[in-house]
Design brief:
The complex is a heterodimer. By secondary structure, chain A is an alpha+beta fold. Chain A is 46% helix and 14% strand. Chain A folds into three domains: 83 residues, no CATH class; 107 residues, Butyryl-CoA Dehydrogenase, subunit A, domain 2, CATH 2.40.110.10; 136 residues, Butyryl-CoA Dehydrogenase, subunit A, domain 3. Chain A has eleven helices and eight strands. Chain A has a four-stranded mixed beta sheet with strand order 1-4-5-8. Chain A has a four-stranded antiparallel beta sheet with strand order 2-3-7-6, with no helix packed on it. The longest helix of chain A is centred in the last third of the chain and has 29 residues. In chain A, 49% of the residues are buried. By secondary structure, chain B is α+β, with helices and mostly antiparallel strands. Chain B has a domain of 172 residues: Butyryl-CoA Dehydrogenase, subunit A, domain 3, CATH 1.20.140.10. Chain B contains 13 helices and nine strands. Chain B has a four-stranded mixed beta sheet. A three-stranded antiparallel beta sheet of chain B has the order 2-6-5, with no helix packed on it. Chain B has a two-stranded antiparallel ribbon with strand order 8-9. In chain B, helix 4 crosses helix 7 and helix 10 packs antiparallel against helix 11. Chain B is globular, with a radius of gyration of 20 Å. The chains are: A alpha+beta, B alpha+beta. Chains A and B meet through helix 3, helix 7, helix 8, helix 9 and helix 11 of A and helix 7, strand 9, helix 8, helix 9 and helix 10 of B.
Chain lengths: 387, 368
């Protein structure tokens, strides 16, 4: 154990900081879920990042990365969020499918899909949930019927983030019509502009269309778009879910920055705050620190050859609950102004806290509800009997 | 940057865990509950045979010269076992304090304690009730003229009955001139401040250990106890309670480990900056909350059994109650957090301020 950065790690931090200072847009980009302009602005940012080879620093150089370890990834993320850089529009691709392809994809698939994923030329959506397969994901009905060298995809997918404007999706399909539950499923990649794909945007509680329903009617894709063997889809998706709940999707720096903004908000509104707000702000800072320390510990373990399993569920519960508490604290500090939109003339320094609050409420739901996560912890980490 | 224990560090803690599993099980604890002094000399001797009392005493003073990262998992194991003897205070706080004193009197007492296993207890304003004073042969007492080391026979001990059936609490006093001075008033303040930081770090570790013990007890019970024709642990209501407790533990433990890594092998080199103090306070607060939640959850999962004397849950609940209020208590530590976030820079790049470089010490002797 040595909790000091090496000179090389410090130099790396300085390099990231300099690049971000020179490249991060001065004004925040419009939301990528609010319309084509915001979406494309974020795509352009991904291209710029990638041109600096900062798209995914942990990826091998061949795919646009730098082949760095997880500690450097954490340092990169710290500087990324500290610089106020945009959220990653391709997070489904770079954080979820990317690592999955790296582990389970063929060489052809890696060469075909990873480079345009890194540059943002191809933005990805996830197509797992169905109207009858939410928490019970193994109830998936959408099917992939083999037809020569192709699959014909049919079914109804829903809650597919970014799918309104994304280019590709990775979906879970039943390749064995006689199969039940977890068996007979396969992970298949398909373009969202293919014939037979109909997308229907779903308005979210913030009014934006951050996700969509997908109606698939005999969408033809090459059999080579299947990741892993037929029937391996469940196992591969659970590994992906591990990435999702675990380290990548919510890096600690994002919450450390939220904590910093919260402290600034408290200081700016100190005259109207009492000890309850002080304690809540202190709790928020501690939670962000605890999450960061935990991720450093996990990263150190993974570098030493360990693996992340069911403990990813601990992370998911912790960050999603922390995020809500932080935003609730901000709204409590804002008091009566909490309900005002930033465009209101009386809004003052309300910033984007209300927006962030609404988004935080989705945290305990997406990527597997926190109830499902608690079941996983109880059964797989603690060893309680299955219900 | 490597936030993982070395194999040596974990092996050392495993040896302690194994010893405690043999010597400090439920039956042993229950045998001590009815005695006037629950300090078990025989178990103390076996623990000290592992070299534990001098673990954080510098090598030139006869110790192992290790740091907090080496000791923290041991302190966790002591909490997990609900160990009655104050090993964590003795090895984590008192002997490093003596090693931190100038002069012969402190050094002689330290040497003697390392050789004989004699318990030396510290009277500290942040821990007014001295644990196991009935087993101590000498006391470190702060006074207007500085810090004094007073032999047990010159100390008046008044028992203060408390709720933990495995630990007796005392207040102590002595004549102003009793014993020998080991630190002048100026140095005393620094020594006591450092003792409080070490005390908080290792109390936090004990709390994390006992929190995990509570979850372990409840998981075992929920797997056995059947109602409605199946184990109660198959119900989501039970699962979710225990999962929530495990989440609290999982996000207290790394904070405690990072706080322990601040404790260097040289007791005088403990960092004294606002960020280090906040990390230590955070550790104690997070560990205290984890232990409180875990103990209450364990009680609830055990149902009426959890409210009975017969089940061990109450031993942990009571120890948690004691430890969360020691070393200043939650409000003191919340204030230190507030002070830190309102007066020093915060953000992702302040997670690991290079404290060690500023103090010119290595936080740990053994690095992986």
């Amino acid at each position: 154990m040595d909790l000091r950065y090496t000179d090389e790690q410090q130099a790396f931090r300085a390099e990231v900081r300099d690049w971000m200072a020179a490249n991060v847009p001065g004004e925040p980009l419009p939301s990528f879920d609010g319309g084509r302009a915001g979406f494309e602005a974020h795509r352009d940012w991904e291209a710029r990042l990638n041109a600096g080879r900062w798209g995914m620093v942990t990826w091998p150089e061949a795919y646009g990365g730098r082949g760095l370890d997880l500690i450097r990834w954490l340092i990169f993320e710290e500087e990324y969020y500290a610089a106020g850089a945009p959220l990653r529009v391709n997070q489904n691709g770079i954080f979820l499918l990317g690592p999955t392809l790296m582990e389970y994809g063929s060489e052809e698939q890696k060469a075909r899909f990873l480079p345009p994923m890194a540059t943002g030329e191809e933005i990805w959506a996830q197509a797992w949930s169905e109207p009858q397969a939410g928490s019970d994901l193994a109830a998936v009905r959408a099917k992939a019927v083999r037809d020569g060298d192709s699959y014909l995809l049919s079914g109804h997918k829903i809650w597919s983030s970014r799918a309104v404007m994304a280019d590709w999706a990775f979906g879970l399909f039943r390749t064995d019509p006689a199969s039940e539950r977890h068996k007979g499923l396969s992970l298949i990649l398909f373009p969202l502009d293919a014939e037979g794909v109909r997308r229907q945007a779903i308005a979210q509680i913030n009014g934006e269309t951050g996700f969509a329903e997908l109606f698939l009617d005999e969408v033809r894709v090459p059999a080579g778009n299947r990741v892993g063997a037929e029937g391996e889809g469940w196992r591969i998706c659970m590994a992906t879910a591990g990435f999702e709940r675990g380290l990548m999707l919510r890096s600690p720096a994002r919450f450390q920055m939220t904590a910093r903004r919260l402290v600034e908000l408290y200081e700016a509104n100190r005259e109207t705050c009492g000890p309850a707000q002080r304690d809540a702000v202190a709790e928020a800072w501690m939670a962000a620190e605890a999450y960061a320390l935990s991720v450093y510990a996990t990263a150190s373990r993974l570098i030493a050859g360990g693996r992340i399993g069911a403990e990813a569920s601990l992370n998911k519960i912790f960050w999603s609950e922390m995020d809500i508490k932080m935003h609730e604290t901000a709204l409590a500090i804002l008091g009566a102004r909490a309900e005002l939109l930033p465009i209101a003339s009386a809004a003052g320094d309300v910033g984007r806290w209300l927006d962030g609050y609404l988004f935080s409420l989705a945290g305990p739901v997406y990527a597997g509800t926190n109830e499902i996560q608690r079941n996983i912890i109880a059964e797989r980490l603690l060893g309680l009997p299955r219900g | 940057m490597n936030f993982a224990f070395s194999e040596e560090q974990t092996m050392m803690a495993d040896v302690v865990r194994e010893l405690l599993a043999r010597e400090c099980g439920s039956a042993a604890l229950r045998g001590q509950m009815s005695t006037a002094c629950s300090f078990d000399r025989e178990r103390w001797r076996k623990l000290l045979e592992l070299g534990l009392s001098g673990v954080m005493v510098p090598e030139d003073a006869g110790g192992l010269g290790l740091g907090g990262a080496d000791f923290v998992q041991i302190a966790e194991a002591c909490g997990h076992a609900c160990l009655p003897e104050p090993l964590v205070d003795h090895a984590g706080v008192v002997l490093p304090l003596l090693a931190d004193c100038e002069g012969e009197a402190a050094r002689a007492a330290l040497t003697q304690s390392l050789e004989t296993g004699a318990v030396i207890a510290l009277a500290h304003s942040q821990t007014p009730w001295i644990v196991a004073a009935n087993a101590a042969s000498a006391f470190v007492l702060p006074g207007p003229d500085g810090l004094r080391l007073v032999p047990g026979e010159e100390v008046r001990r008044v028992q203060q009955p408390g709720i933990d059936p495995l630990r007796q609490l005392f207040t102590v006093s002595a004549e102003p001139a009793a014993g020998a001075e080991i630190a002048a008033p100026g140095a005393m303040a620094t020594l006591l401040a450092r003792a409080a930081e070490r005390g908080a770090v290792f109390a936090a570790a004990e709390l994390v250990g006992l929190a995990q013990a509570c979850v372990d007890l409840a998981v075992a019970y929920a797997g056995e106890r059947r109602q409605f024709g199946r184990p109660i642990g198959a119900n989501q209501a039970i699962k979710h309670h225990l999962a929530s407790a495990q989440v609290k533990i999982a996000f207290a433990r790394p904070v405690v480990h990072a706080a322990a890594a601040l404790v260097p092998s040289d007791p005088g080199a403990l960092p004294d900056d606002i960020e280090a103090r906040a990390r230590i306070s955070h550790a104690l607060l997070a560990a205290g909350e984890a232990a409180t939640l875990a103990a209450r959850t364990a009680l609830q999962v055990h149902g009426a059994m959890g409210y009975s004397w017969e089940v061990d849950v109450h031993l942990y609940l009571k120890r948690a109650l004691s430890l969360t209020q020691r070393w200043g208590g939650p409000e003191h530590h919340r204030q230190r957090i507030a002070e830190r976030i309102l007066s020093a820079p915060i953000g992702p790049d302040r997670l690991f301020p290079q404290v060690a470089e500023e103090t010119e010490t290595t936080p740990m002797k053994r690095t992986a």
